Amino acid sequence: MKKILIAANPHAGKGRGKKVLDQSLRLLRRHGAGAELLISESNGHLLHALPRRLPEGWDQIVALGGDGTLFQVMNCCLQQPGFESPLALIPAGTGNSFSRELAHAALPAAWERILFGEPKRIDVLHCLPQTPAPDFPAGYYCITALGLGFVSDVTINALHFKSFGTLAYALGVLQSLAKLNTAHLRMQLDGRLIERESVFVIVCNSRYAGGIMKIAPGALLDDGLMEVIVLHKVSRRTLMRAFPSVFNGTHVHHPNVEIFSGRSLQIAAEPVQVLTPDGEVAGLTPVTVAVQPKKLQFML
Question: Is the pLDDT of residue 1 over 90?
Answer without folding.
Answer: no
